[in-house]
Amino acid sequence: MLQQTTVAAVIPYFGHWMKRFPDVQVLAGADEQDVMALWQGLGYYSRARNLLRAAREVTVQYGGTFPRDPGLLRALPGFGEYTAAAVAAFAFDHPSVVLDANIIRVLARLGDIGEPVDTAAGRAGIEELARALWPVRRGGRAFTGALMELGALICRPRNPLCHQCPVRTFCRTPHPEALPVKKSRPRIESLRDCRSVILHGGTVALSPSSGPRWRGLWLLPETERPPTARAAFTEKFSVTRFRVSMEIFPGLHPPPAARFFSLDALPPMPSPHARALKRWMKAHAPPSLLRDRKRKK
Ligand code: SF4
């Protein structure tokens, strides 16, 4: 859940998730639609699908007990190098090297590494220093946690508190705020996306997502931009390096793959689409439909 997402955003989802799926066996037996519904709003939905696949693999291959070795963890769905190392360190105290943004910053400054840390040369310098400092047998949990905290609280991106730093005696950089160096970021691109809201009685037409990002979720149907009509409103959101302006139009004819869902039992939808539908209902739904829905509740 914490991949690309802040702790504050994750906390409520984590609580609900653990109540519904308290262990790996319960998750392994869950229906994908239920898993996606619980994840709705957290974004990056491939994480939810991978968690489900990983739970099923742990149940089938390892009898429901997580493997402890980072190499075996790495082979599970959704486990990249970082996640495998972090789970091995925090769950099993394995001395695997965990490199997140806070730790990379601390190491770049400790070793005064001026190569961009997102290049092969810079990464190699960080890894070499990490291997020299990391514990050898156990202690991955405390060591990794301490370095993360050091980065978050003392060796901050701006205004590092060097006078309070417990490792200042062997820190090599004279210019902490200049490190770590990074390559220039890719430019943000604008995208326009036109969608329609098609209501029929108490139902709305939704299309299954065809792309990998929102696989398993249902979207407002895509539409051509009508040459004369103006959008009812625009919902703006960001996806990776794209800034998307999603224009919403009233629609009449659903595309062939669309299905009608009751407004009271919607399938999992990505947040921007769920938000747009809610906004539409508030501003444009016929009063009779709103009255009916109120009565049902
Ligand atoms: S002395 Fe300053 S720059 Fe060096 S690790 Fe500590 S806080 Fe970071």
What does this protein structure show overall?
This protein is α+β, with helices and mostly antiparallel strands and 297 residues long. Helices cover 42% and strands 13% of the residues. The chain has two domains: 7-178, Orthogonal Bundle (Endonuclease III, domain 1); 189-296, Nucleoside Triphosphate Pyrophosphohydrolase, CATH 3.90.79. The protein has eleven helices and seven strands. Strands 2, 3, 4 and 7 form a four-stranded antiparallel sheet that branches. Helix 7 crosses helix 9 (140-154). The structure holds iron/sulfur cluster. Iron/sulfur cluster (SF4) is lined by residues 106, 109-110, 154-155, 160, 162, 165, 167-168, 171, 173, 176.
Tell me, rounded to a whole number, the average pLDDT.
Answer: 91
Tally of domains: 2
Q: What structural class should be given to the helix and strand makeup?
A: alpha+beta
CATH architecture of the largest domain: Orthogonal Bundle
Per the principal axes of the C-alpha atoms, what is the gross shape? Answer: globular
CATH topology of the largest domain: Endonuclease III, domain 1
| CATH homologous superfamily designation of the largest domain | Hypothetical protein, domain 2
Beta-strand content bin: 5-15%
Bound molecules: iron/sulfur cluster
* Overall number of strands: 7
Q: What's the gist of this structure?
A:
42% of the residues lie in helices and 13% in strands.
Write the layout of secondary structure elements.
Layout: H1 7-20, H2 24-28, H3 32-39, H4 46-62, H5 70-74, H6 81-92, H7 101-110, H8 120-133, H9 140-154, E1 189-197, E2 199-200, E3 203-208, E4 218-219, E5 233-239, E6 242-250, E7 259-262, H10 271-284, H11 287-296
Parallel strand pairs: 1-6
Antiparallel strand pairs: 2-3, 3-4, 3-7, 5-6
The structure holds iron/sulfur cluster.
The site of iron/sulfur cluster (SF4) has 13 residues, from α7.
